[in-house]
Amino acid sequence: MATDYDAPRKTDDDSESIEALKERVPDKLSGAVDSEDSDNPGFELAGADLSDLDLDVVVLPPQADEFTCVSCFLVRHRSQIDHESKLGPICRECSA
């Protein structure tokens, strides 16, 4: 016997109204909006004011045993090189 999967299914559970279902579900997803921007949440360190702190970053030049993969642009050790393309070296992860 063929079954029409696009046809609406009627069961005994469908007899419950939408209002009854709303009463059973907690109101976690209400329309209340937090005061904090939901697209850009902020993180605060407990009791730390870091607004006047300058961060110093030391950038090392490329080492003799490193290469930059032309596919993923990650700096890797020479042992992870798979092959050289006409654009430059390709790592093992990108060649797979």
TrEMBL record:
Residues 1-12 have a biased composition (Basic and acidic residues). It comes from the Bacteria. InterPro entries: DUF4193. Residues 1-45 are annotated as: Disordered. This is Uncharacterized protein DUF4193. The lineage of its organism: Bacteria, Bacillati, Actinomycetota, Actinomycetes, Micrococcales.
